[in-house]
């Protein structure tokens, strides 16, 4: 038996003390009285507000001081999000304290212990967060967390076994928390679920005293419906500082999403530092400060891994590449990209500024190889690369004399089909490059890569240019599009990202429609072994760190539950749990959007 690492816990405590002091400072301006309300858990209806005195509820009814405490035990799944596949919840609470939390990782392979200790640190942080960083009430029982893991494999892939079981029982001398899992990542999910069985209980109106309550008599058996549960963040349209990205990772970990799809570059800016090719950020970053250094990227990858999340870096190509690639002529390498920042832009790209890599210039492949090598260095093996591949504009390539001559020399005509051949050639060259890099790095088997759906992935072209054992296609067509089913019928593995429901920027431009959490929740993926999962996307044309949290949360949680639990029930019965998730995210330092008026949050299902 040993305690969680001091550093992780202390960092957690410190972060929360700061948050707490700010809120304590504010609260002295208000004279808060003991609330007139208590909360009752009503069968199938969630938590409902009741007057504290002379309540009309029958004698013997349990009443809770806060709605969060009520929600933790109310309903079949209490306050858990995403809902577990199978769960039995008790109704009794035990007071616990983070100081009397002990971890036992004896039943886990050595290779997993470092990760487990860090995962324990995250759990401690999350428990403290329920009380704003300081738990003032004493424990009734110490907590012993027994974690058993079978596999020594700590890689994160589509084959990673994420199932776990969790049991919480009060014994005479301890609250026993037992997590069993095949992998360390399954164990992490179990610890996350345990944290959601614990709630802060504010015991006085000035909010200076707070106790932690843990539900006992719990049995959970859980596994994800889909292996790929992604959140896409674009950091090219607008730069998103690293601490904001980490906060998004915290939200992902809370909701058991497991892939951070980092759309790090685009035509607008190139913020990803390449040690091998410093020109990318020198010419591509908005400012020297708006750069992700290699050291920061390495830290982020580790931060995500401790939270069960794989980082998938996307270098969009051959389109969506411009700023960051415009230094070729100056350095004697010719044009690495064409149409960069060209005007008028409308016929040359989807949105300004334009830019497309120049497949006629062999130097492009040399610098892509350097960049991919940097990425392979940053990501634990086996790395998964997203090669982009959307929205190639034939007109842009067709406007370059160099490319037209290259086409002619290769015997490609200047029709759309000719340009498909050029694109296919580009794709096969970059895949070879990636294979070479991984081979040199000692990865034994050829790894699949991800690619956006496009003209090239239409069924009339795809078989000719993209092998189904090598490419996983991310389909971003509207949910009504037949493409996803067509591709799975051909045997291609796909990731679903239906733009008219799971694009979080919709509703902020053009005639796109905002999808609220309910609409997002209702989209169901086709049931098919070739559908690896889905993603929700935050494109950042119209958001930066100022409004990021509210744009992303809590809507992203809808996707998370769809991909983890794939419930057959509608959003209606989920709303009380989503309310609880929201207060949890707030406690953990996120700033999610509100779901409805406070009265509705105190009267579950009376506003639906
Ligand atoms: C509550 O009930 C008590 C006695 O049953 C009565 O004296 C008191 O006036 C009631 N208070 C309110 C606010 O109705
Ligand atoms: C929460 O704290 C209050 C004190 O204000 C206490 O009366 C109540 O019993 C606590 N709730 C539980 C479930 O222990
Ligand atoms: C490229 O330009 C030529 C004329 O220069 C035209 O005939 C051809 O249709 C164009 N190709 C595409 C795909 O637009």
TrEMBL record:
Catalytic-site annotation from UniProt: 391 (proton donor)
UniProt entry tagged with the keyword Zinc: no
Assigned EC number: 3.2.1.52
Chain ranges of the Glycoside hydrolase family 20 catalytic domain: 226-566
InterPro entries named among the record's database cross-references: Beta_hexosaminidase_sua/sub, GH, Glyco_hydro_20_cat, Hex-like_dom2, HEX_eukaryotic_N
Organism superkingdom: Eukaryota
Gene Ontology biological process terms in this record: chitin catabolic process; glycosaminoglycan metabolic process; polysaccharide catabolic process
Residue ranges of every copy of the Beta-hexosaminidase eukaryotic type N-terminal domain listed in the record: 145-197
UniProt-recorded Gene Ontology molecular function terms: beta-N-acetylglucosaminidase activity
GO cellular component: plasma membrane
Keyword annotations from UniProtKB, A to Z: Carbohydrate metabolism, Chitin degradation, Glycoprotein, Glycosidase, Hydrolase, Polysaccharide degradation, Signal
Catalytic activity: Hydrolysis of terminal non-reducing N-acetyl-D-hexosamine residues in N-acetyl-beta-D-hexosaminides
Similarity field: Belongs to the glycosyl hydrolase 20 family.
Name of the featured protein: Chitooligosaccharidolytic beta-N-acetylglucosaminidase
UniProt organism field: Eumeta variegata (Bagworm moth)
Lineage: Eukaryota, Metazoa, Ecdysozoa, Arthropoda, Hexapoda
């Amino acid at each position: 038996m040993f305690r969680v690492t001091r550093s992780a816990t202390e960092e957690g405590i410190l972060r929360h003390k700061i948050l707490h002091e700010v809120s304590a400072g504010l609260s002295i301006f208000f004279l808060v009285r003991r609330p007139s309300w208590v909360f009752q858990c009503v069968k199938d209806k969630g938590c409902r507000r009741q007057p504290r005195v002379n309540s009309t509820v029958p004698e013997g009814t349990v009443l809770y001081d806060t709605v969060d405490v009520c929600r933790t035990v109310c309903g079949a799944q209490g306050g858990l999000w995403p809902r577990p596949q199978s769960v039995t919840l008790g109704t009794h609470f035990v007071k616990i304290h983070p100081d009397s939390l002990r971890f036992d990782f004896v039943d886990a392979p050595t290779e997993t212990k470092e990760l487990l200790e860090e995962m324990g640190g995250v759990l401690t942080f999350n428990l403290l967060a329920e009380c704003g960083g300081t738990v003032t009430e004493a424990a009734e029982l110490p907590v012993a967390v027994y974690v058993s893991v079978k596999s020594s494999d700590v890689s994160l892939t589509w084959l990673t076994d994420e199932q776990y079981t969790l049991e919480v029982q009060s014994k005479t001398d301890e609250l026993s928390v037992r997590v069993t899992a095949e992998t360390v990542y399954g164990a992490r999910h179990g610890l996350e679920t345990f944290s959601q069985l614990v709630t802060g209980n504010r015991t006085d109106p000035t909010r200076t005293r707070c106790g932690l309550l843990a539900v006992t008599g719990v049995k959970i058996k859980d596994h994800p419906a889909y292996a790929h549960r992604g959140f896409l963040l674009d950091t090219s349209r607008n730069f998103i500082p690293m601490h904001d990205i980490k906060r998004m990772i915290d939200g992902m970990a809370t909701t058991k999403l497991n892939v951070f799809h980092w759309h790090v570059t685009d035509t607008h800016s190139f913020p990803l530092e390449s040690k091998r090719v410093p020109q990318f950020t020198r010419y591509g970053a908005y400012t020297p400060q708006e750069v992700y250094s290699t050291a920061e990227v390495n830290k982020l990858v580790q931060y995500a891994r401790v939270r069960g999340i794989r980082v998938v870096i996307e270098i969009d190509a051959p389109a969506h590449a411009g700023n960051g690639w415009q230094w070729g002529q100056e350095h004697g390498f010719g044009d690495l990209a064409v149409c960069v920042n060209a005007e008028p832009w409308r016929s040359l790209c989807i949105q300004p500024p334009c830019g497309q890599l120049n497949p006629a210039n062999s130097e492009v492949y040399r610098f892509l190889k350097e960049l991919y090598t940097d990425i392979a260095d940053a990501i634990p093996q086996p790395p998964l690369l997203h090669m982009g591949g959307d929205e190639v504009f034939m007109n842009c390539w067709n406007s370059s004399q160099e490319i037209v001559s290259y086409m002619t020399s290769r015997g490609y005509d200047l029709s759309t089909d000719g340009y498909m051949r050029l694109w296919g050639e580009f794709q096969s060259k970059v895949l070879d490059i990636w294979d070479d890099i991984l081979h040199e790095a000692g990865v034994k088997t050829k790894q699949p890569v991800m690619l956006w759906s496009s003209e090239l992935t239409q069924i009339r072209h795809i078989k000719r240019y993209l092998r189904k054992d090598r490419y996983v296609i991310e389909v971003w067509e509207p949910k009504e599009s037949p493409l996803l089913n067509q591709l799975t019928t051909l045997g291609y593995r796909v990731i679903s990202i239906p733009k008219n429901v799971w694009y979080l920027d919709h509703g902020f431009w053009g005639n796109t429609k905002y999808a609220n959490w309910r609409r997002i929740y209702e989209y169901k993926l086709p049931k098919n072994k070739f559908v690896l999962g889905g993603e929700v996307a935050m494109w950042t044309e119209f958001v930066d760190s100022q409004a990021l949290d509210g744009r992303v949360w809590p809507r992203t949680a809808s996707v998370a539950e769809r991909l983890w639990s794939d419930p057959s029930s509608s959003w209606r019965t989920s709303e009380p749990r989503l309310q609880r998730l929201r207060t949890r995210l707030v406690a953990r330092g996120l700033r999610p959007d509100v779901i409805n008026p406070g009265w509705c949050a105190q009267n579950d299902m009376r506003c639906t």
